[in-house]
Amino acid sequence: MQGIMYLGGISAIIFIIGIFVFIAKEGLPFLFGAFDLKEFFTSPRWIPTSENNPTYGALALILGTASVTGMAMIVAIPFSLGAAIFIGEFATGKTRETLKILIELLAAIPSVVWGFIGLTIMNGLIIKLFNVPIGLNVLNAGIILGLMAAPIMTTIAEDSLKAVPDKYREAAEAMGATRWQTIRRVVLPAAKNGLVSAVLLGVGRGFGETMAVLMASGHSINIPHSVFDSVRALTATIAAELGETAVGSPHYGALFTLGILLFIITFLINLTADLVVRGIRKK
Amino acid sequence: MKIIRLLLALTVALTLTSCGRSGESGHSSSRKVIQNKGSDTLVNVAQAWAEAYRKINPNVAVAVSGGGSGTGIAALINGTVDIANASREIKPSEMEQARANGHTPVEHIVGYDALAVYVHKDNPLEGISLDQLAEIYGEGGTLEKWTQLGVEVPGCEKQEIIRVSRQNNSGTYVYFREAVLGKNRDYKLGSRDMHGSKDVVDLVQHTPCAIGYSGLAYATPEVKMLCIEDGQGNCVAPSEKTAFDGTYPIARPLFMYTDGEPTGAIKAYLDWILSDEGQCIIKEKGYAPVREVVCEGDAQTGE
User: Fold this and answer.
1) Within an 8 Å CB–CB cutoff, is residue B135 touching chain A?
2) Nearest CA in chain A to B66
3) Surface of A (121-140) touching B: CB under 8 A
4) Which helix (H) or strand (E) holds A152?
5) pTM exceeds 0.90 for this model
6) Could you give the ipTM of this predicted complex?
7) Domain residue extents for chain B
8) Regarding the domain delimited by B113-251, which CATH topology (the fold level of the hierarchy) does it fall under?
9) Any A CB within 8 A of B23 CB
10) Which one of A56, A100, A176, B104 counts the least CB within 10 Å of its CB?
11) Per DSSP, what are the bridge partners of residue B236?
12) Topology classification of domain B30-112+254-301
């Protein structure tokens, strides 16, 4: 019995090492071949199938992912923190339970459905509201992604609010603080680490999301100058192109290099989130 | 207790899947499955062929999927399909890769397709020349606004031309680059790269500023097709007929690639595709057949 548990426990480690080894193995021949570090990080020219001069500049893709994720956080942070505070501190009984279930339901909507909403409803809406030529852009993908990231952020933020001992609240009330003062001055600072890690996990979700971003961002290689510019994300590029390249070609290797980059970024974000959470426990 | 339940569930699941497996293999032993994959341009007609062929030879099932010419050819190189559909010729580099993997792609032309240039239905533009298209789509091109083409598009605030293109391993993308930009010129970056022929038409339909290219077969009444000017006052509209007789400048052959000379069921299927019956199906779907064929519906649907 214990053996089974042990196996289950270490299987996660085996899987993650296996995945990393696999990605690295496919990407390395390119990294030591046609790869040009300077071009990769500073050139926006991603033209892997050019007949005479294939270039692999990922700058526009990196900025595309970053801008969409940034926009998503602008949408998701107020939403999810507000929801978490309401559920954790104000709502009681039935309201609270219903809200929690609804938010979990929101997390269960498949990303392709979100993408579809972005492609059909939001596109037309943005064109009409802002009078821009095309509605598939940073704003569209950011809103969609923000709504997708909000449920998980809400859940984690609410958990961290719940982890604040009740005696803090009681003490604050005993000092004559109003409910709002208690939340703002006592509960939020005490739950700070958990809230930060909730945001970081949301960022990780944003970096990793593929389908919805592919559909709502316009999939256009472009360094964004405003929220109304179409962009292309790292993940979307891999999804759109990987199935159609011959195994072992430089293009294939370049896509795996994008995968390595994504892996490192999300790994760092999750690690930071984890360290921040651990920070609370130590206190 | 929980463990026992888990084990029980696992056993049930295993038995179920093994049942499914044995059922499947029993099925395929009596039935030949042809794996057919590739070009999005061809996917509609490939499906129509597969469906019609099922009635003719019930023992052969053709499994069709799209994804782009690059997908199909990559699958052929990797040895996972029997027939790869492509809307462009196989590249020398791909040929080499296939040989290195022990496959020899053999080319079959199964029809012709006109690549139509689409704009929003409110766009007053009627015709466009290949040079203008190259200046719109090509790297370093100077055409950025509809007003430079002498039109004002209603509903398009800044008159900016929104370029709709395809993802970079689509056969349509490669063919359009060769036919319009020339072999050595790349696309201007910043186009919206759609993931299917139909998506291009859909986006153009909803975007007043847009211009896009896609197979003629994907035309809908909601978008407008431009005719192509030849510089001598003629403007050729894309159609099955102009694609076939070569007067429309951006028409291309459609290919099917097999691994080696086809034999058995695959050969029979390809022969049937090139027969009058198969060619009538491609004609019905809005593409040009490889030769003149007289089909049943011609009297009613003739142009």
Assistant:
1) no
2) A244
3) 123-124, 127, 131-134, 136
4) helix A138-162
5) no
6) 0.76
7) 30-112+254-301, 113-251
8) D-Maltodextrin-Binding Protein; domain 2 (3.40.190)
9) no
10) A176
11) B228
12) D-Maltodextrin-Binding Protein; domain 2 (3.40.190)
